[in-house]
Specification:
Keywords: Transferase
CATH topology of the largest domain: Glutaredoxin
Radius of gyration: 18 Å
GO molecular function, one term: transferase activity
CATH class of the largest domain: Alpha Beta
InterPro entries: Glutathione-S-Trfase_C-like, Glutathione-S-Trfase_C_sf, Glutathione_S-Trfase, Glutathione_S-Trfase_N, Thioredoxin-like_sf
Structural class: alpha+beta
Protein name: Glutathione S-transferase
Number of strands: 4
Helix content: 40-55%
Number of domains: 2
Order of helices and strands: EHEHEEHHHHHHHHH
Organism: Pollutimonas subterranea
Length: 239
């Protein structure tokens, strides 16, 4: 059994997709990041970085519970545990390369593009341009790579595709103002349609659909999501 700590955002979505693809039994534990639940001491024992997703594998190595955090680490852990979606042995170097391209490039720059376009104070034009253009550049790198291939790595669906799906599912938000955000990236668009048509994608998108997460962007939410914007003592105390 996997205990899955979840909020409906791109990185947890990746893990949801893997769990649904692999048919693993899991218990969903909602973590409302807008309420600051990621900072609760009990959750920090699982992920000291205070981010979702995280999992606890109740049947980890040696039969002991094992906590894993960071979406890429979780995908690798679960893929190795189940021997699913790892591709062929000869694909391993490229699998690791593209997983980390997503983890250190496409994902974070997309996230920052969203932040500066939607959440940051007005007037930060340099930052808005910087992160939006870098998100576009990462999209272009992936689009070029997919020009002559069906999947990101090798000849089969892998955790690289699962990882990329999580963020590309939010392309409309990353590419604010574009009615058809994937139109400039036809190879990504074709790839995304194929991945998104898998039954597990619909199941992953429906995870926690019956749970009401906070949507109001008030001061509590700002302090919970962006504690570094407040003086350290103030942020810690929640005052």
């Amino acid at each position: 059994m996997i205990r899955f700590y979840y909020h409906p955002t791109p990185n947890p979505a990746k893990v949801a997709l893997f769990l649904e693809e692999a048919g693993l039994d899991y218990e969903l534990v909602p973590v409302d990041t807008s309420k600051g639940q990621q900072h609760d001491p009990e959750f920090r024992k699982i992920n000291p970085n205070g981010k979702v997703p995280a999992i606890v594998d109740l049947d980890g190595p040696g039969g002991q519970p094992a906590a894993v955090f960071d979406s890429t680490a979780i995908l690798l852990y679960l893929a190795e545990k189940t021997d699913r979606f790892l591709g062929q042995a000869q694909d391993r170097p490229q699998l690791l390369s593209w997983l980390l391209f997503i983890a250190s490039g496409l994902g974070p720059f997309s996230g920052q593009a969203v932040h500066f376009q939607y959440a940051a104070p007005a007037g930060l034009d340099y930052a808005v341009n910087r992160y939006r253009r870098e998100a576009e550049r990462h999209y272009q790198v992936l689009d070029d790579h997919l020009s002559n291939r069906k999947f990101i790595v090798g000849n089969e669906y892998t955790i690289a595709d699962i990882s990329a799906w999580g963020w590309l599912d939010r392309a409309a938000r990353v590419m604010k103002g574009d009615e058809d955000p994937l139109a400039p990236y036809p190879n990504i668009k074709r790839w995304f349609r194929e991945v998104d048509a898998r039954p597990a994608a619909a199941h992953a998108r429906a995870v926690a659909s019956d749970i009401e997460f906070k949507k109001v962007n008030d001061e509590e939410t700002q302090r919970a999501l962006f504690p570094s914007n407040f003086p350290p003592a103030d942020a810690k105390s929640g005052k």
